[in-house]
Amino acid sequence: MTAITSQAVRIDQHGGPEELKLVEVQVGEPGPGQIRIRHKAIGLNFIDVYQRSGLYPSPMPLQLGMEASGIVEAVGEGVTHLQPGDRAAYASQPPGSYCEVRVMPAQCVCKLPDAISFETGAAMLLKGLTAQYLLRRTYRVQPGDTLLIHAAAGGVGTIACQWAKALGATVIGTVSSEEKAAIARAHGCDYPIIYTRENFVERVREITGGEGGGGNTGEQTYTVEKGDNLSTIAKQFYGRQDWKRIYDANRDQLDDPDRIKPGQVLRIPPADPAPPTAA
C-alpha cells in the first residue's frame, strides 16, 4: 500500500485559534466503500469553531473541517457512483477536510457538475441540502403555494428563496435590515419583512389576506445559530418576545433558558390563534 503525504490542519487540544497546527499526515489507499479525494476548495463553517473550542467535544488529535470539493483520485471496492477523475464534493462527517488529500466514506460524497465551481461546491452544499429537504421532502412545494422563509438573506435562505420562486411559489421572508431585505429580494423573495420594525405575523396575514404562509400551523423546528437567544428566536416566529413558550416546549434539553448552544434543534410550538375580528 502506497501512502501519500498531505499537509493538514490539526489540533491536539481544545482552545483558541492558536491551537491550529499545520502538520504532515500520511494518507493511504481507500478501503471498501471509501474514496480518496484531492481537495481543490475547503468550506468553513461555525461547526469547525465549535469543535476547535470544545463546545462540541471531540477526541484528540482532531483534524478539522466538514466541507470540501476536489478530484477523486482512487475508489475502493464496491464504490460505483464515483470514479477516479470525477469532480466531487461533500458536507459530512467525519471531520478532516482541512487538508490536501483524504480518504472519505463514498456514501457521503457526490459528483460535482462541471457548471458548479469547486469554491461554490465547497461553500454551499450543506446549505443546498438543507433547502432541498425543506422544499422537496418536508413539504413538496407546488406552484401557487405561499411560503414564509426565516433568515431569507442567509446561506440557506437565499438558496431556498430562489428554489421556491423557480417552483412557482410566492415567497415571504424575514430579515433584520434594509440591506438584507435587498439581498433577499434579489434572490427571489417577493415580500421581505424587516422583523425588527414590523410584526411579521400581522404582516404575513396582511400579505396573504388572512390565510398565512404555507398552511402549516403545527409545531416547527429551528436550529440555533451563533448570537441567538430565546427572545430573538421567539420574535422571529411569533413577532413578539414570547420566549417562555419555546422554553417550555424544550425543557427536556434546556436546563437554563440563558444557555442555548449553536447547533441545537429546538421545537417551536404554534403561535396562539389570532383573536377574532370585531364585526
Describe the structure.
The protein has 279 residues and is of the alpha+beta class. 27% of the residues lie in helices and 25% in strands. It is built from seven helices and 13 strands. It has helices at residues 46-53, 118-138, 155-166, 178-186, 200-207, 230-238, 243-249, and strands at 4-11, 21-27, 34-43, 62-63, 67-75, 87-91, 101-105, 109-111, 146-149, 170-175, 191-194, 220-223, 265-268. Helix 3 links the parallel strand 9 and strand 10. Helix 2 packs across helix 3 (155-166) and helix 6 (230-238) packs across helix 7 (243-249). It is globular, with a radius of gyration of 22 Å. The chain starts with a strand and ends in an 11-residue tail after the last strand. The relative contact order is 0.10. Mean pLDDT is 89; it is low at 273-279.
Count of alpha and pi helical runs:
7
In N-to-C order, the SSE pattern is EEEHEEEEEHEHEHEHEHHE
- The chain-level structural class is alpha+beta
Which residue ranges are poorly predicted, with pLDDT under 50 across at least 5 consecutive positions? 273-279
| Beta-strand percent range | 25-35%
Spatial order of strands in the largest sheet: 7-3-5-6-8
Question: In one word, what is the shape?
Answer: globular
Portion of residues in helices? 25-40%
Break the fold down into its secondary structure elements and pairings.
Blueprint: E1 4-11, E2 21-27, E3 34-43, H1 46-53, E4 62-63, E5 67-75, E6 87-91, E7 101-105, E8 109-111, H2 118-138, E9 146-149, H3 155-166, E10 170-175, H4 178-186, E11 191-194, H5 200-207, E12 220-223, H6 230-238, H7 243-249, E13 265-268
Parallel strand pairs: 9-10, 10-11
Antiparallel strand pairs: 1-2, 1-4, 3-5, 3-7, 5-6, 6-8, 12-13
Helix pairs in contact: 2-3, 6-7
